Amino acid sequence: MPKNETHSIANPYGYFDAANREYVITRPDTPTPWMNYLGEGRYGGIISNTAGGYSFDRDPRTRRVTRYRYNSIPADQPGRYVYLRDQETGEYWSPTWQPVVGRQLEAYECRHGAAYTRIQSTYRGIAASLLYFVPPGEACEVWVLSVKNVSDCPRRLRSFSYAEFGYYDALIDQQNLDWGMHIVHSRYADGTIVTSTQFRPTLTFFSSNVTPAGFDTDREVFIGRCRDLANPVVVETGEPRQSEAPRGNNVGSLCHDLVLAPGEEQEIIYVMGVTDDPGTVAPLLARYGQPREVQAAFEALRADWDIYLGHFTVETPDAEMNAMLNFWNPVQCRATLYWSRFVSAYETGLGRGMGTRDSAQDTLATVQAAPARAREMLDVLWHLQFRDGHTWHQVFPLTGEGGPGLAGEFPDWPQWFSDDHLWLVLAVCAYLRETGDFAYLDHRVPYWDSEDAPAGGDTMWDYVLRVRGVSRLDPLEQPAGGDTIWDHVLRAVDFTLTHRGPQGLPRLGFSDWDDTMNLDHGSGKAESVWCAQQFCRAMLDLADLCDCLGKDKDGARFRALHREMAQTINRVAWDGAWYARAYDDDGLPVGVQGETYHQIGLNPQTWAVIGEIGAGDRLTRAMESAHEKLDTPYGMALMAPPYEHSDLRVRGTTTYPPGAKENGGIFCHAHAWAVVAAARLGWGERAYQYYRQILPLARTDADTFAAEPYVYCGNICGPTHPQYGYGRNAWLSGTASWMYVAGTQWILGIRPTFAGLQVAPVIPGDWPGFRAARLFRGVTYRIAVERMGPGNAVSLTVDGRPVEGTIVPFPPAGQAEVVVKAIVGEK
Ligand code: GLC
């Protein structure tokens, strides 16, 4: 059924290699650095296709290991570099192309896989390869350099590594140079460079498994005057200076001699990491100095990803969709679960920390494959909740410090967001549907402002451990202290109920999901239609949960709240052909036909469907209007027409030029909801059309798109923007989670419910069907879907027996596999 997937998805800079599950970049000069992530959410970093990027330990703000200069020239520097120098001719180059970009590499290839990157090239008869990864569970990374003489004469080479170390607190490293430049120093002993300060236990080490011929740790000595990373004097002369930086800019440069007969290959393993305990360094270096151990660690990393990716696999007639759903999309989802919107090529790892709204949504698509980590995240986020029910908007992972995020810049405006706490409700319901871990509702977490809140200085992970009263994370452990998750949920609902505006809709707060929708300037009257719809979805999810738990009274209450809010929306927000977006500070509607700008917003149309707010044909009309007014070949614009000038009434949105981001750009995260909404309406063709519109692997116009073609980007410039089609903010975006949910749960229709696994595909008419395997509550469901005729009607056969409806009931305990056959369409 599927096309030959290997190499089928190409653009001028690369292709997806499905067999090896790697994106292969075939030219180094990509329109932007095409990034990957290393590590499993603790020690790790970002790495580009030319080895640019940096590393950090758990927190890119306070435990940064190497430096990176955002927005600098040359771009994407520094990184994890190795220079090679031919000792006969004096010629030198970078096997990763950067930073010595002046050489024409004869062959170049970068393979980004799941949490590893391999860059290979050939230059003048020398083939070199660098593999970068973080051994699972370690606070260190490994670079494996292989150099092979593919010429027919003996070669004498020298290699020089390069990593740049600053002060661990990355803000201080940039802001307080008078102090920062005096406190970090480096020493060399027995082949290892150690960079540290005299007052912190923290030290960075850089070592290799081959005795170096020399070293340098002082950047100015290594680079030389009036030079840069493209022509360091040490590399040019081939002579390391054995510099031990007493202060200043510290680097990890080890020099090695490589003498290679024709056909001979030599390997050097570099190990770089950070620790607060010097005693751990020697054993670590001893271990990863051995190629066997490195190989085993690499295999362990791949095995861990195999397990993670094995929770859901699919074969559809669409090769790009397969590649995304089987690999890149879940890979991206894991990166967002780990790093929220904190650290990427666009997010500097300094300001944002993790977000309540964002991280809660990041759990939605990882809960099936990483439930323990998702639950840890939920604990952390619930702790950001205040007793009145609202939550902090952001948290820094290592200090546990919460805050109002960007609202902090406008202290006279509300310091809370109308949606944060409701995302947590939705995320908890999704977690419970997936896992059936209902004991979680009795699990206790203190409120941010309760008496047993954590002491300052607790790290996020320490805090989770302490709240659970355990020394390691184990979802089954009973917690001590705090209020139950169920109480937290109720307070979240109450916050919205007690913060309604004049129309009866939720007050907007600083903003709702759209950060730039800042309509409340202190009057407290601005309201969000979209948030009302989000509330409706939360009420239905909670009502379902209550049905399952036998909490009938609560269930009835949530259904009544849903009804009441849906009626309010239909009464005050229907504008004739679509739903309004919000009410402003003066009680005037936004996102309605009478406006010059922002006549229609996307979110209130999609969420009218997602929130099931009913009312005759309004849902289909709203979605038709959105299609007509907002759809473009690159995705749905967030609203139209965009504002042309700064407007104090609207604030944030109007800081952007027309067509950019929230001002009428294509906001991919919101676009994903259009896929969900179209599928919920049973519109198979349109859901699929929307799905494909922002599918990065389908964007073969790399010079227009610019962003990585293997992961979703956050936004794409809209039709009114001069750079229409240009993608920005790749990797860390809620698009990842929602496109995964949209693809797997709504188009393919395979979704967890409290009663069992639902199989209700809404697929295009010309698909003959698809196959999928889904692990759900410990059972593997092997699903074969076959189209018999038009429409979305489903008849299910489970283990050979017909089943009423679209939900596969839970099999008896002990059954490990269920075979599901779904016939779609009327005969
Ligand atoms: C960014 C933010 C997210 C917000 C969105 C829309 O993606 O990370 O929290 O919902 O912008 O403003």
List the helices and strands and how they pair.
Layout: E1 10-11, E2 14-17, E3 22-25, E4 35-39, E5 43-48, E6 53-57, E7 81-86, E8 92-93, E9 107-113, E10 116-123, E11 126-133, E12 140-149, E13 155-162, E14 164-165, H1 170-175, H2 177-183, E15 185-189, E16 192-196, E17 203-208, E18 214-218, H3 219-223, H4 233-237, E19 250-260, E20 265-275, H5 281-288, H6 291-309, E21 312-315, H7 319-339, E22 354-355, H8 356-364, H9 371-382, E23 394-395, E24 402-403, H10 420-435, E25 444-445, H11 460-468, E26 483-484, H12 485-498, E27 527-528, H13 529-549, H14 552-572, E28 582-583, E29 589-590, E30 600-601, H15 603-610, H16 618-630, E31 631-632, E32 635-636, E33 639-640, E34 666-667, H17 668-680, H18 684-693, H19 702-705, E35 713-716, E36 727-730, H20 734-747, E37 750-753, E38 756-759, E39 769-776, E40 779-787, E41 794-798, E42 801-803, E43 807-809, E44 817-824
Parallel strand pairs: 40-44
Antiparallel strand pairs: 1-2, 2-3, 3-9, 4-5, 5-6, 7-8, 7-13, 9-10, 10-11, 11-12, 12-20, 13-19, 14-19, 15-16, 16-17, 17-20, 18-19, 21-39, 22-23, 23-24, 25-26, 27-28, 28-29, 30-33, 31-32, 34-35, 35-36, 37-38, 38-43, 39-40, 41-42, 41-44
Helix pairs in contact: 7-20, 8-9, 8-10, 8-20, 9-10, 10-12, 10-13, 13-14, 13-15, 15-16, 15-17, 17-18, 17-20, 18-20
The structure holds alpha-D-glucopyranose.
